[in-house]
Amino acid sequence: MLPTTDIASDTSNPGSRISLRGVSLEVRGNGDPVFLMHGIGGNASSCGALAHLLSKSGYRTFCWDAPGYGESADPHGPVDHPGLVLQILATLGLGPAHLIGTSWGGVIATQAAAQAPEAVRSLVLADSTRGSAVSADAAERMLARVAELVDLGPAAFADRRAPRLVSPSADASQAAAVRSGMAAVRLAGYSAAAAMMAASDTTDLLPSLQVPSFVLVGEDDVVTGVDEARILAESITNASFEIIPGAGHAAVQEKPAAIASSIVEFWKGLS
To answer: Which residues form the AB hydrolase-1 domain (predicted)?
Structure first.
């Protein structure tokens, strides 16, 4: 378990930072806990606008920098990302938390919810996937990204990949923010994330999930896509499903207000 003595900030202040054994989180607001997990090319700031809006709606949000991302320490060796999320929730004594995962973060959230449903109040999957191990080709392509990052460097890597993450209708500032997040990736964190994705296929987990679930996807997502999101929603018992107009794969950054509104309505409907 993570030691509580590693908590290094006043968590009552919106926008404060806490650190748990090298894992950094942005904390906002007060109320029921919400844990947000970014995609493989992002960091805590990728979820910042959404977290800000949720905190204004009466929730206490925690946006993590996954190991090797943002202000978190680089991992040394394999990382059990879902297990780490559950350890953080237990250490903070949050009680059942709402989990929000975008893309890779959604795979982490799915696995965490399957491992410890008692720790999860609800599951929100945004532009997510079952993982790259659904096929050998997909797993190989995911692992090949690491070599591409090494070859190009983060800035050129972002120049090549980031434009596909946003809708054609995204404004320049949104596209720049998405590119900036990807240009900040570090090899240690990205490698650990890619390894997890290449080994993950949640197909058999989805029907057994025991928590209320909501699947969201941008209508212009060309990375994981609407069809994959439909598979998630149709595989999870009683899952809600929504397509976000005018958004791409980075929907949480492009349309945070629309997504926040939809998520809060979903939570209000929980018994």
So the answer is: 33-255
